[in-house]
Amino acid sequence: MNKNITKKSQKGMGKSSVTSVTSVTSVTSVTSVTYPFVTCVTCNTPIWNAIFGESALDKIWGILACEERGFTYDEIAKKLGKKESTIRMTISRNKQYFDIKKGNDKICYTSLLHIAVDEINQRIKDFEENKQKIKERELEKENLKSKSENIIQDFKNFYELHKKDVGISIKDNVLNIDFMKMTKFNLDLIDELESNPEETLRLFESAIEDLGLIKDPRVRIINLPKHSQLNIEQLRPKHLNELISLSGRIITLSDVRPQCISAKFECPSCGTIIEVLQVDKKFKEPTRCSCGRKGGFRLLSKELIETARLILEDLQEKTDNPHAKRLNCYLREDLLSYELMGLYNPGGEVELVGVLKEVPIPLATGGLSTRFEHAFEVNSVINSKEEIEVDKFTKEELDEIKKLSKEIDEEGLEKITSSFCPSIYGYGEVKKALVLQLAAQRNKIGKKSEISKPNILLIGDPGTSKTILGEFSVAITPGARKSVGGSASAVGFTGAVVRDDFSGGWRLEPGAIVLTKDLFMLDELNNIKDEDKPRLQEALSEHTITVDKATIHTKLSAPSCCLATANPVHGVFKENEDLVTQFNLNPAIINRFDIIFVVKDIVNEAKDFKIAKKMNDREMKKLSFDYSEDILTKFFIYVKEQPEPKMTEEISDRMAVIYSRLRKYKTDSLNINPRVHKAFQLFCKASARIRLSEFIEEKDIERALNILSESYFKTPSYKHFEIKEEENENQSKERTKEVSL
């Protein structure tokens, strides 16, 4: 409409138009003025109202622009209903926009200069652009409305086809949707769900509600494709507002708190009800009412939902970064139901599906930083690493497990130690001790604690494969963890109390020992700082962690057993020096281990040849073994699920006699105390359990004694404790006498 407004038309006014309307001095010439925009302004009232405001200057502009002549001050004043002095003052204050010329009649006539013409033309141009933008927005709204309706209808069709498979929980109003199933039905739905997940999920919920099956439904998405499955360290700005899946280990879960998502206010002046959505961190009130009132609104009601923050940590086995990244994840509504709270135990491994958001970082000055933190709005949660259940074992697996157990019963532990860490030659008794440690039932910590697993310490010369043996135990034990003494403090092992910026209070972050379920490996124990070592004593002996800091006063359970390794301070193990001096370990720490093995680097040509040959086989990938790691994992899971082996009176007396004789070997450097007898008991039970026997037998005693004889305690082997028949009869008579008394 404004195509006639061109540089050419503006130049047509001449350079002199900037200083004068016309070059002639006749009255007619002065009063007759033509502007390039006059037609579009006078013929279109909406443009007039849009470009000329209510100010006196704008009204004067409007009069001069819509009449093709100059005006006197008096004429302008009469048209506007103002005083002539007011018009004169307004024009004089803005004289850069006006040209004033006297005609032959000696009267001053006012018209617009080129600069005012440009300003009005720009206003017309802006008006046209805004008008076009409004049309585009209206068209976009129509398209979005049509698009939304199509999405709702497509989802209804998908639901009708797969309603038997999507898994509806009527109790919780939850609908679980398999993403990969949806890819087979409609790719348009998939594209919308990946690029605009929040709005698309809202439309899905509207579709379910339209069907009338569920009131206020919640749609949860599971089973995302591989390209959407990420680690925390892989997150980048391009992933913001996209539907992705994150796998990790739970560090801690905050308290469940209410969060306001909507509030209703009443205007005291007119009674209007105003609803305000709460999308920011700060509680928001209405700014003004339709009646004109500002502030002072009365809060009527709030819509609250349950919310909590979960801290997720990258799984170290899935990343190359030694420092696992963490992310704040937010759970809402049904994700915090009692049924799901068991998934959020510290140390549990979960897979979260949700939308990545950015959160501004507040500055100490009160403003906001230009940097942002990531936050993850969770849509669904599944347990990514369920414990292997015996009930799910196949018949073939159970047959192989029972076969291995029978071979151990008949031929000894050598049948399993040959497959235990097959890349390492030798260390027969050490491997047997580690096998029995894994076979023992998990420790039960509570009001009635039951310690079933021994703590084992491997010490000795560097480069003797102590760490490799421990890592193999961790690899075949679900829920096991490894930490290195030189890279963490006792707080990292046990736990820490830190400020929670979500709730404003304090929260407890459990350490590695607490997060471990079965076996905790502590490599390089000797490198732990001296001030940190006492903090480990409670975890190793009582299997608990007591925390008394700030507002946190609790006792954490640490049921896992410990497998630790240590190297001598001077690099070489010396027989004539005690462990405290050589390994920088205080007696309190050493006494917390049930059995200690000294692994030495002894020169032996035949043995060294076999060690080198085994290393070559490992390099050539020619290692041979009877049972794979997968079978060993399932074997130990099956063994630990069996009932606790019982101890008969005869075996009880036998073990008591052996311990009483072991006490004779106590010296200043070798402390044979009840802890040794406790280790003796634990190994006997584990030996009977690995044979799937209901009772502890003589062969279990023999096995335990032979393991102890090769340990640091250097107790006599089984052959030194053969009991004659007459001694056995005397013990039986004494026991009968005690019973009768």
Explain this structure.
This protein is an alpha/beta fold. It has 4 domains: about 110 residues, Arc Repressor Mutant, subunit A (Orthogonal Bundle), CATH 1.10.10; about 90 residues, 2-Layer Sandwich (mini-chromosome maintenance (MCM) complex, chain A, domain 1); about 160 residues, Nucleic acid-binding proteins (OB fold (Dihydrolipoamide Acetyltransferase, E2P), Beta Barrel); about 190 residues, Rossmann fold. The protein has 26 helices and 22 strands. The strands form 6 sheets. A 5-stranded mixed beta barrel has the order 7-10-11-13-12. The longest helix is centred in the N-terminal third of the chain and has 49 residues. The radius of gyration is 42 Å and the shape is elongated. The N terminus and C terminus are likely disordered.
